[in-house]
Structures are given as C-alpha cells and as structure tokens.
Design goal:
Layout lengths: L1 E6 L4 E8 L2 E9 L11 H23 L8 E7 L3 H18 L3 E5 H6 L13 E6 L4 E6 L5 E5 L6 H11 L6 H9 L23 H14 L8 H29 L4 E5 L6 H14 L2 E3 L3 H4 L3 H13 L22 E2 L1
Parallel strand pairs: 1-4, 4-5, 6-9, 8-11, 9-10
Antiparallel strand pairs: 1-2, 2-3, 6-7, 7-8
Length: 341
C-alpha cells in the first residue's frame, strides 16, 4: 500500500510517501523568511505553501520512484494550525483524492506527532506515555493503541514552545527561539537563577505563563532594558530558563510514572529537538528502566512523514472520511476524542 502525507499547518510545507511500511520520501520546505518578522505571518505563510506544494509533491513522487496513479491513500493535516495554511495542503489532498478516486484521510496534526516515534527503527510499545511538547501544545497522554488515547494533562496557558519563543524575543535572540536559547544556554550557568515551576489544579497539567513572566520581571528588575544585559548573564538566563522548562516537563512525567505502568515513553514535537530536554528524559527512562523513543530531528518538527503514517493507521483501522471534511484552526477532536481522566 502506498500512502501520501501532506503537512501545511504552519510554516513548513512537507510531502511524504510511505510504501507499505517503508518511508520512501519526506521532503520539507521551511519558510525561513519569517525570521525577518520575529514570527509567522499567516498570509505570507499560506502564499508560500501555494508556491511550493506542487513542485514538492512532484519531487516526492520522483524520489519515492512511484507514479501518481499508484497512490492508494491520500492524507493531509486538517488541524490544528493556521487556517490559510491548512487549506492549501488539505484542498490539494482533496483534489488528488477526488481525481484518482482514492480514500482521503484528514489527520489531526497532534496525532501525527503522537505517533511520530513509529517512524524510528526502535518503536514505542503500547501502552506508552507520550509527552507532546510543541509550539502550541504541551500534553501528557496515555497511548494504549492506534485508536485509544487518554489525555492525562494539558497546557492551561502558554505551551513550552511558545514560552521558548517569547523568552527568546525578550532576550533579543530572535525567531525561532528554541534553537537560539539552547545555543546560548550551552555557555551559561543553569543554576544561576532559580525560576519557578507553576503548580496546577490538575497535577498533570502544565503552565508556562508564570515562568515567562518570571523571566520578564527578573530582566526588568536587574537590567531595565534587555539590550543592556551582558552576554554571559544573558546566557545564564537562557540556561536557567531552559532548566526550568525541562524540570516542569520531567516532574509531571515522573508523577505519572509513579501512578501508572507503561512499556515505553515517547517525547515528541518541535521542543523534543532540544538536546537538554532530550537528555533530561533519557535520565528518567534510565532510572525507571523504561524504553525511551524520541524521533530524529527531521520528525520532531512538522513533517509529512508523520501525517502519512497516521493516515495509514487510520485507513487500516477502517476509518472513512468524506471530502466535505473541513480544516479547523484549533480543532482538538478530529479522529478520536481526547478523554480526560
């Protein structure tokens, strides 16, 4: 079976091809020009998707060594994401599905991340604890199968990735913030500042708004203007902030592991690319004697491979969708219900 996956939820256009169980192509086009604006501009993002999606699709087929007529299933991200960007990939996928009379599978972007660990050679085993850390979401999930997921904790305000971007902007690092803070933190003292980790009503929920504000108040109190922060002290702030985020994520994961039994743990999403956070979870996994699966860097960010894989599993599970299915910028229940315990 040949599955096509299309991702266009934000500022990456990606097309992937999976033949049976082998990933044959995963092309990603990133919109680097957003750096000039300090963040993603939705209108410019959707226009860029329009310009690149057709040549990217053709290149993916060539790389996979297949013809369009051989595609069996067409999958595309349907949300959450930027509505204009989503519509480009979703409508392109619908057009292909309609013209070829092949099944169309709309995919929840979060589900793509949740199962991205299965793109690795060593895959998670059910049931596993999934920690989703991305620009817009921070989730703790109990994943029991490809069709049964329980949400244990979520973000009550800012997500981890959003906090990285906002703190990076505050410190004058630019956009995207995650890689820049990580680079600065490598030369900083993570114990220099003890930034607080918020406690939530639900002990498994996350809150990063207070941490972001704590960094802001520290800068205002000690420097006034962020531009006056010496480089070495800027690095200390970055390192201390990064440690606080990692502590927030790992402390909640450890609480879950004390309550429930899992065969594995998987950390996914854009923030999972952060080396410090990956190492923090490696320490937990080693202590708990638990298999840890963290996707390769190309599968941490937005990519078509995870969308193709999720479309494949939904098709194999017998899920059917109409071409009337619409894109939703903040949809949380596309293919299954997140059940809150």
């Amino acid at each position: 079976m040949i599955t096509l996956g299309i991702e266009s939820s934000c500022d990456e256009t990606s097309v992937a091809v999976i033949v049976d169980n082998e990933l044959k192509a995963n092309l990603i086009s990133s919109q680097d020009f957003h750096k000039n604006f300090g963040g993603v501009i939705p209108e410019l993002s959707s226009r860029a998707h329009l310009q690149i999606i057709v040549p990217l699709y053709k290149n993916a087929l060539n790389l996979a060594g297949i013809e369009q007529s051989q595609i069996d299933v067409v999958g595309a991200t349907a949300g959450p994401g930027l509505i204009g960007s989503l519509l480009v990939g979703l409508n392109f996928a619908k057009g292909l599905s309609f013209s070829m009379k092949k099944p169309f599978i709309p995919v929840n972007h979060l589900e793509g991340h949740i199962f991205s660990g299965f793109l690795m050679e060593e895959k998670p085993e059910f049931p596993y604890l999934c920690v989703v850390v991305s620009g817009g979401h921070s989730l703790l999930l109990s994943v029991k199968s490809f069709t049964e997921i329980r949400m244990l904790g979520t973000t009550v305000d800012d997500a981890a990735g959003e906090a990285f971007d906002k703190v990076a902007k505050l410190l004058g690092f630019g956009y995207p913030g995650g890689p820049l803070i990580q680079k600065a933190a490598e030369n900083g003292d993570e114990t220099k500042i003890d930034f607080p980790v918020a406690q939530c009503k639900n002990e498994f929920d996350f809150s990063f708004s207070g941490l972001k504000t704590s960094v802001l108040r520290y800068v205002q109190k000690n420097y006034g203007d962020p531009r006056s922060i010496p480089e070495n002290e800027r690095n200390d702030i970055a390192a201390s902030f990064q440690r606080a985020v990692a502590n927030a994520l790992t402390s909640k994961a450890k609480k879950v592991l004390r309550r429930q039994r899992f065969k594995a743990m998987s950390v996914v999403g854009g923030v999972a690319a952060n080396t410090y956070i990956r190492k923090s979870f490696e320490e937990i996994a080693a202590k708990e004697n638990l298999k840890l699966v963290v996707p390769k860097l190309e599968f941490c960010g937005d990519n078509g491979a995870m969308i193709a894989f999720r479309a494949k599993t939904l098709y194999e599970a017998g899920r059917k969708f109409s071409l009337d299915y619409q894109a939703f910028p903040s949809m949380k229940k596309l293919n299954f219900d997140f059940m809150k315990k």
